[in-house]
Structures are given as structure tokens and as C-alpha cells.
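Supplementary Methods, section 5.1.

A reviewer requested that the exact input to the structure prediction be made available. We therefore reproduce it here, unchanged from the version used in the analyses.
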Amino acid sequence: MKIRKELLERKHISYAMEHIELPPGGIDCSEGCNPYGFPPECEKVFRDFDPARLGPYPHSDALYDAIRGYWKDVIDVERGNILLADGSINALYIINNIFDTHDSMVLGVSPQFTDYYMHAEMIGIDYAPYQLKKEFNYRFDTYEFLSMHFIADRYAAVSMPGKTYNFIYIDNPNNPTGQCIDIGEIEEIVAKALKKDIMVIVDEAYGDFMPKENSAVQLFSKYPNLAVVKTLSKAFGLAGLRAGYVIAHKDLIGYLHKMVNPYMVSELAREVAAEALKHPEFLEKCREDFAGMKAEIRDVLNPPVIKVYKKGEGDDAETYEKRKPGPASGRLHMAETLDTNSLLLLYHDDKDIKLAEEFLKRGVLVIDGYDFKGLDSTSVRVRLPKKEEFPKLLEAIKEINAL
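The structure derived from this sequence is encoded cell-by-cell as follows.
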């Protein structure tokens, strides 16, 4: 059989798990879905759904209408700007398949969503990532990204002569760090890419954990080289439903439609996902909880220094405490991250430690950093749990910080 050579030669790496095995009393901080599930109003849609609607092919407009309504306070999105997909990962696969893969490269960020670049490589696209640096706490640097890899094209010329960038892939917020790139920096990248006729994919799988005003969705009408990928799997807690979408210029959406099953997203999924999008207040509560948890983790890893000041003398003296950030007291660190996002990356100073194993010993299942390009087993990706489960995670962090 004439199997594509990339499939024969390359090993597929993914942190996706068919089965999740927790130790007794353990908590799952691995899967990138919302630990709080979906908006409770979705349950009524499930209960009231007429099973007879599953007989014909899906035709409901509910999700199209809900997407337009969700973004109306930011930008007017027409139906022709929307492509429905069975989750954001399916949308990414479709986008990869519309490009000429001959002598092409995708410029990415390392570390980032593993399954995206693995698919690109499996269809013959070389992946050339900009490496986030541990010494800078894995913070994304837009200037360095543009100057080192894009404007001068030095990386392409030196490492892969004869190759050209066909497109750029950025996950925002980043998976696994959870950090967020400012919309102004995203626009700078997209604008410079347009001048070179390069496509930019902004994967906002975790984008609903950041403010809408920071979404690249607001840029699609201005830049025909931009595709913004969204999903209901993460913040809206509907990973098992498989519902996602792409927002882009109508011409690009037209090309994508040529490559897809015309009946993407089931009838039931369209109705339930549409209901979820009507409840942004659910997201706000989740964001608040995650921000509170990250603040507690930060206090453990980087405890505040307390300075005591006295005003007055003798028995009349008043005492004041002033807190300011102090140096990390342990050996575990949290990478640059958006506090309202559910993801974070932890890394340890011990170069021999198997960090995921240390968490599992303490009943916490996480994703091994080894599963991300640019990382190793001294790091882990953590998806924050429910607030009531958080003490178990925090205790594990305290113990491992002292190793």
C-alpha cells in the first residue's frame, strides 16, 4: 500500500488519553476540559430534545445564530464567516489540508498544542517553532518571535533551506502555560504575515477564559489571512459533545467548505452548544475561581516578604505590615500564565525529577511535560480542579516545592 511516507517515518505523540485512571481518592488535573462542566441551563436542552430530530441530517441554525449573538458586542459576524466543526481539533485538521504542503513550513511556538503540529508533520508540513525560554519563565516575546523567525527569515534560511513559511500557528492562550498574548501583538503578527502572503491560525481553544476584547475574532474582517478557531470543549465544558467553529473571511471559509463533511456538528450538539453560548455568567464564575486558585499557588511558590513598620513611639506606637513579592522559597515554579485560565505549567529545578510521577504519588493526575515539544519530565501541565478539590492539589504543590 502507498502509505504517506510521513506516517511511516514519524512517531505520533499526543497527551490525549482514551482511559483516565486515577488512584483511590485522586483528582484529575490532566484533561483540558472545564472541571465545573457546562452551564446548568444546557441540561434542559438535553431533556427537551426530540430524538426524532436525529433521523435526518443536521440542519439546525441554532449554533450559527448563537455564535453571532455571542460576538455581537465585539464585531458583526455573518453566517458566511462561520464554519462549524466537530471540536477545534477537527477545525485545525481541515485548515491544514487546504494549504500546499510542498516545501512548506508552519511557524509555531514551542511548547504548544501537540496534536496540531503532529498533524501538520503527518501531512508533510515541516514544523519550525519559536522556543519559549525557561530562563524567562516561558514568556512569549513578540519582538523576538518576529525578528528571529519571520521578518529576517534567518531560521528558515539556516535550518531548512528551500522551505518557505506557508502559515503561522499560535494558540492563545497558550497550551500548556496558559499565558495570553495581547491582541495588539497578535494583530502585529497578522499584519506582517499579510504582507508576506502568509496565513495565520489563532487557536483560541482556551480563549473564552480571556476577555472577549482580547480575541482575534475582532480582526477577521480586516485581515483575510486570519482564521480564528474556537471550541465549546474547554470553558463551556462540552468536550464530549464535539462542537467547535472557525471565524474567518468569507473567501477562506469557502475554501474550507470544499474540504469538509457538509453535515459537521450533530443536531443535538448544535442545540446544546447554542444554549451554552447564551450564558457568559457561567464563564465569569469559573474565571474567578481559577484566578483565586492561581493566586494561592503563587503565594506558595513565591511567598510575600512581610516588612513591619512602626509609627510613633512607646505604648502609642502603631504597627503596619507591608507585603511585597519575594524570591521563590522552593524549587517548583509556575510559568507565565493568565490567572483566569484553567491551565498552568509547573517546572522543577531538579533536572532528574519525574514531576508527573511525583504528583501521581500524591493522588494528582497531570500531563507530563515530556509530551510537549520543548519541555521534558521536569515539568507538568496542570488543569485546575474544582474549588473543593483544590486543597489536594495545593498540598501536593507544597510538598513537591520542598523536594
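Residues 154-158, 321-328 have pLDDT under 50 and may be disordered. These observations are discussed further in the main text.
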